[in-house]
Amino acid sequence: MILERLDKVRWTSKPIRATCALLAFLMTLSLYRTFWTSGQQGTSVTSQASQSSCGLARQDHVAVIVKTGASEAFEKLPTLLQTTLSCVDNLFIVSDLQIDFHGYRMHDVLANVSPAVKDTHPAFEIYREQIRLRDAGATLQQLSSTARDQSDSHKAAWELDKFKFLHMLNTINVEMPGKDWYVFIEADTYLVWPNLMAWLAQLDARQKLHIGSPSFMAGTKFNHGGSGFVLSGPVVRAFATEHAGIAQQWDERMSKECCGDYVLALALTEIGIPVSGAWPMLSGEQPIFTPYGPAVWCQPVITMHHVDSNVVDSMWAFEKQFAVQQRPLLFKDLYEHFLPQGLPSSRSEWDNRCPGSVFDIRDPLPEDAKTSNEACSQACDAIPHCMQALFKEGECKLYKCFTLGKYSRGTDPSDVDRTSWHSTWKRDRIEEWVASHASCTAAWTPHSTDNARSGGI
């Protein structure tokens, strides 16, 4: 309408020409700012091209915290920042070194670890060395290269990582205060942003909630860090203020435990905040390793773990393509997109095991099932809900899920003799099941203290 009216105006008047020139300049500036929005430190850079895959839900009440380290950030973070994390306005990166990277500040959350632990735990040698190298001018790329070339550095970086889990809560309470939700992921976790926002809208942020993908260690339930987990604002504020100092109190215990996500569950449970699960929406697998079937099909996908840059790029391209459907992205959609030809019938030197004992078939097997791949496959044939089988000499595993899996020769530490696995899939059963479940309504998993991947379906 503006352009139509301008066409009818006589351009001989200098005031009119000046006014129109000003309008044209303002319109150009507006378009420029729409397509190229510069992000501030700690925020995202979002173009109009990604708005459709990001959704339009308000997000000022949500913060996403990416936990990483100086040894891995250069390789893992850039692709995430340019894709799924470009949707996030309130993005905060925690690390074992303070340094600026791709327009973001990586925050050192280990500075306040107990001095007694820092002075005695061997892993903090690399922590001090990283600081020394940074101060001497080393870039994050150089730090990453050094860690990659030194196996001891990689192990020390893994040890350092566990100390971040508790101390990062204190940091974000100061740096990102007052949020309803804090979403924690790692540098190899993919986040389906529209699904996350739709899910959080169903929850009560006034409750003290710790929701994730539960696993067990020594009989204790904890939320797996790589799958991502969510803390409500009241949890973070209670931890950092009502129980100030609790992180340092746990540092000595942390030094003796393997995993920070496990100790986080212990610490939060101690102050009255139980572990709650929303598996499979928060998932520890990427698309080709996902255990598809009745338990993992119509549920919306919120996170995936162990994603490299190729998987991230593929997922982001798929999300942009999928956005026109204007519905939640489901596990069914992942299967249909990433495995469009379905699954093979058989593969040697291949491991198609489904992650989690929940998918194991424990029916008694024929005596000869562990003697050959053919006998193991026939044992699967005899059980109507068996979808795939995995065999090596002396072992036969049957599953009620279906997944592609991976090349296996020599990758299993238990295969001392390097005997490889042989995988078979019941293609007819799988294709029949997939066809009969082609239509899905999003089944949002209610968070529950009873939810766990290793529990029942």
From TrEMBL:
It is found in: Membrane. The keyword Transmembrane applies. Its EC number is 2.4.1.122. Its main location: membrane. Gene3D superfamilies: 3.90.550.50. InterPro entries: C1GALT1/C1GALT1_chp1 (IPR026050), Fringe-like_glycosylTrfase (IPR003378). One of its GO terms (cellular component) is membrane. GO terms for molecular function: glycoprotein-N-acetylgalactosamine 3-beta-galactosyltransferase activity; nucleotide binding. Residues 143-240 form the Fringe-like glycosyltransferase domain. It is a single-pass type II membrane protein. It comes from the Eukaryota. Belongs to the glycosyltransferase 31 family. Beta3-Gal-T subfamily. This is N-acetylgalactosaminide beta-1,3-galactosyltransferase.
